[in-house]
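Q: Given only this backbone (319 positions), what sequence would you predict?
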């Protein structure tokens, strides 16, 4: 065993797909919900209730450094910087007699430096995804509904901030409705499709929390993502073509889905802002697009894949 290999093993630094793609992304998903998404929920509640303290707490919870430097790709920038900073910190830990200064100094100092240097580049990469969303809004409602719903919905499940992307692009109106449909389809869809593995606790953690909890399972077995993606592809055009559903609340709500019910609340806020008194058609459209249809479509797709032996018990279990 070489000296370098021995050093890395002693420091528990392992460059592997399991550690960075499955373990780290899984931790990222939970950390993102506990910070950025919770912050957005509190900020939204602060705006609705007029309680400034909620907005301030929400702002602190969203984080700074790599998240701010990365713009729309902030959470992804955090992921990259956190991995590098953590491994560098581990590398120097307990190697000197002034470890109490060296380890945090290297971890925080280099972490912030990397955030400044790498964050904007990661943000620029994420903005290219936003360009695709903007391009999709110029298409006919049918195609736009499918493209926007699937793309933004997928961004919500991956450790990329779909809410930040929608906010940066000012994604409202019909495109906002498609984005909302796609995000709801991912969260509610996964809650329904994985009910066999996670029960009612999974419905709450995914349906009102985040579908990012499924990221490790997606890397292990990509086909587990199919039910939610099918639901997104179907619910998007239903929102745009059948109901003409426009999300004219805060743009960030377009990318939140049912997380803390921020998406539906944004939809309602848009109606109020536009002077629309929601009637039966509006409430039915909200219920169908945000909850009923994605749950039914994802569950039926998952049932078919289980019957075909392509998805097995435990494939969608979350910790």
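A: Predicted residues:
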């Amino acid at each position: 065993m070489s000296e370098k290999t021995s050093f890395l093993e002693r420091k528990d630094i392992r460059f592997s797909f399991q550690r960075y793609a499955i373990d780290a992304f899984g931790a990222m998903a939970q950390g993102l919900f506990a910070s950025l998404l919770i912050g957005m929920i509190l900020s939204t509640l602060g705006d609705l209730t007029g309680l400034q303290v909620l907005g301030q707490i929400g702002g602190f919870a969203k984080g700074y450094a790599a998240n701010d430097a990365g713009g729309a790709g902030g959470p992804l920038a955090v992921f990259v910087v956190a991995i590098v900073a953590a491994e560098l910190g581990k590398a120097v830990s307990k190697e000197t007699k002034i470890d109490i200064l060296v380890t945090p100094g290297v971890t925080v100092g280099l972490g912030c430096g990397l955030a400044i240097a790498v964050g904007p580049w990661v943000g620029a990469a994420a903005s290219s995804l936003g360009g695709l969303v903007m391009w999709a809004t110029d298409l006919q409602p049918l195609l736009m509904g499918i493209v926007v719903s699937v793309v933004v919905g997928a961004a919500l499940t991956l450790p990329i901030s779909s809410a930040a992307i929608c906010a940066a692009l000012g994604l409202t109106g019909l495109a906002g409705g498609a984005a909302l449909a796609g995000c709801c389809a991912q969260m509610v869809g996964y809650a329904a499709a994985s009910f066999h593995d996670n029960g009612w606790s999974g419905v709450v953690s995914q349906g009102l929390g985040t579908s990012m909890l499924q990221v490790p399972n997606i890397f292990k077995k990509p086909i587990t993502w199919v039910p939610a993606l099918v639901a997104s592809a179907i619910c998007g055009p239903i929102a745009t073509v059948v109901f003409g559903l426009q999300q004219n609340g805060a743009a960030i709500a377009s990318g939140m889905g049912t997380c803390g019910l921020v998406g539906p609340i944004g939809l309602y806020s848009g109606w109020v802002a536009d002077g629309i008194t929601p009637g039966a058609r509006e409430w039915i459209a909200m219920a169908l697009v945000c909850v009923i249809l994605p749950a039914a479509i994802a569950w039926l797709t998952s049932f078919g894949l289980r019957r075909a032996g392509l998805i097995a018990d435990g494939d969608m279990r979350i910790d």
